[in-house]
Design brief:
Blueprint: H1 2-13, H2 25-34, E1 36-37, E2 40-44, E3 48-52, E4 56-60, H3 63-70, E5 79-85, E6 93-99, H4 113-129, E7 137-150, E8 155-166, E9 169-172, E10 175-182, E11 187-194, H5 199-210, E12 213-215, H6 235-240, H7 245-284
Length: 290
């Protein structure tokens, strides 16, 4: 599985060459010694638990970050660990992260796959415009799995079809499937990385693991109170990035509500109306004696 995991990550970044594989063997062995094998109940800090089924292994911190950094990936303070299969022929992995940025409202009625795709493609093009012609650029072809929100479990799953391009050369990237699990004061982010040919097989696997996550009592989505801190982001921004200029204005207008919008219109029109009225009075008033 050692070479298979690296090959999968190379498909994502191309950070290493095959010649560097042997130098990482010792580190991989150390990583495996720290791995926890299912069935086991994992504590995801103070927020939730994951009942890891048989057939899976979990690499905790700090070994998870150490391993990712060694193969040219980024490890960060939000990373909790990595989930892998304990079967040698399986070449996929899941990164588990925790974001403590407050309560994030989930609403399936606001999921607009077409609008989010246009937004994601626009933001990707904006990013590419800042790069040189010789630098590797990212492109979004569409959805591998369009955004789908489960209101009962407060989960959002999506996957963009990405490829990288340098000049006229195009290279497919591994399939990245993201899943958000929303809680009262934090959100969990599971990211599955696999190859395109096995994506349909891996999606049920990801869902199985998501179903084994349970937020602790008092940390659940439904435990939120009016006094709890709210997240400054939303689902659309997490999936597709910043709102488009015109879209952002519409969002702000909708957030103001009808009555606030009417009040703003009144405040905007009133000075004009008063000025017009004053001008009319000046026209109709009799001339004053010198």
């Amino acid at each position: 599985m050692f070479a298979r995991v690296i090959a999968l990550l190379l498909l994502t970044t191309g950070a290493l060459s095959a010649a560097e594989f042997p130098s990482l063997d010792n580190l991989w062995q150390q990583t495996q010694q720290a791995a926890l094998h299912g069935p086991v109940i994992l504590k995801l800090e103070d927020q939730a638990t994951l009942r890891l089924p048989s057939g899976y292994e979990y690499i905790p911190q700090p070994e998870a970050s150490r391993w990712l950094q060694a193969i040219g990936q980024q490890g960060d303070s939000r990373l909790l660990g990595l989930i892998l299969s304990d079967k040698q022929e399986q070449d996929w992995m899941i990164r588990v992260r925790l974001y403590r940025d407050g309560f994030l409202v989930g609403d399936d009625t606001k999921v607009d796959a077409d609008a989010w795709l246009a937004r994601l493609q626009h933001n990707t093009q904006q990013r590419n415009a800042k790069l040189g012609e010789e630098e590797t650029q990212l492109a979004i072809a569409g959805w591998l799995a369009p955004p789908r929100y489960n209101a009962e479990r407060h989960q959002l799953i999506w996957s963009a079809d990405m490829f990288q391009q340098r000049g006229d050369e195009k290279e497919a990237l591994a399939a990245h499937v993201s899943a958000l699990l929303l809680g009262r004061e934090a959100r969990l982010h599971f990211r599955l990385i696999t190859d395109h040919s096995h994506l349909n097989e891996r999606l049920p696997l990801l869902q199985e693991l998501l179903n084994q996550v349970q937020f602790n009592e008092g940390k659940r989505y439904e435990d939120v109170t009016p006094q709890d801190a709210r997240s400054k982001t939303d689902l659309a921004s997490l999936v597709a990035g910043p709102a488009l200029p015109a879209e952002g204005m519409l969002v702000q207008m909708s957030q103001l509500g009808v009555w606030r919008l009417l009040l703003l219109l009144v405040l905007a029109v009133t000075p004009i109306a008063l000025l017009t009225h004053r001008r009319n009075r000046l026209r109709l008033a009799p001339p004053t004696s010198p």
